Amino acid sequence: MCKQxxxxxxxxxxxxxxxxSFDFLKSDTTDIQKNLPGYMVxxxxxxxxxxxxxxxxxxxxxxETNPFNTFEFRIGWRGYGRKKWQxxxxxxxxxxxxxxxxxxPYDNILGNPTSISLYMDYPLLSTRYFWFGIDLAFGPAxxxxxxxxxxNPNQKAIGSKVNLLFQPNxxxxxxxxxxxxxxxxxxxxxxxxxxxxxxxxxxxxxxIGLKAxxxxxxxxxxxxxxxxxxxxPTNTKVxxxxxxxxxxxxxxxxxxxxxxxNEYETKxxxxxxxxGFSIDAALKYSHISRIGIGYDVFFDESLVEExxxxxxxxxxxxxKMYGGIHISHEFLIxxxxxxxxxxxxxxxxxxxxxxxxxTGFRYDVSxxxxxxxxxxxxxxxxxxxxxxxxxxxxxxxxxx
Length: 400
Known about the structure:
2 domains, 8-stranded antiparallel barrel, Porin, mainly beta
């Protein structure tokens, strides 16, 4: 259920009607109003909550019967309009977060993860006295005690020391005075390795929390005196050119590794190869959105486990490959994009079905070149594999 909520959250978050062209991004990078000051924040957060069960007996008897506590420290920048993309995204706050979870008992077979993540505070409603919005963070998490058939055989939830944290929250914040804010939070914390190692049951936490925000004094990068400036920035709005719709042709390919779907007691060290190739036709219909349709070809070597009576080398290549058609949406934040896709294969795939979903992130290196990381899952939302991809894009936008 938690994974379903995560995907729904991404879809809702990505469906905005207000995608940035490369020319727009280029001007946004070179036309920074360098005379404007910087405003930074320091945040601390405490969260308390409970586990969504992993189904692992030993964990159900220990840490899953007790609440958990999290402690977080953040440093961020107020996006009040020094760049145009900040205006497009409701003057968001963004930065780096350090996050630690304390399970009870603290000495347990799962560990107590610590993460370093990028975060974004995305206001949906803001007034003089309070704000309401979405808080999103993701990054690597360390400190897990992975499953090991000899040294940690009862920890059958997750098989890797390092996992990915994904954390969506909703915020309701209040401005206490010129320097301090407080905010109430509720949300999810999800840890997963994308089935790069087995097991990968996923760790899902639900919690509520309290956040304190300190607004630091403004400053100029060149060291000019900023003592006369207001304690909080005033959102700076500039003229944004009307978006003109245009089409893109996108091609990408990537590779990854995936673990076993079978009993990990005997297959804990097995890694299979996975690859993917896609071609998309997409429409950029706003400054921050792209929608499209595409064709996928996947290679999943772990499908050999669906033919256990046949030796691996005797399974034809075509039985490890399959194709499908997807619809997609991308939500653009400066040079980044949040990807959500839903697809259908041309045939029923043993152990996988016919439907699949893809979520991920894309980074535009240049006008035509991009990098992306995606997670493919069946609609049951049990991870198939993660792919690290490179791609190229051509568009119909006329050059001035």
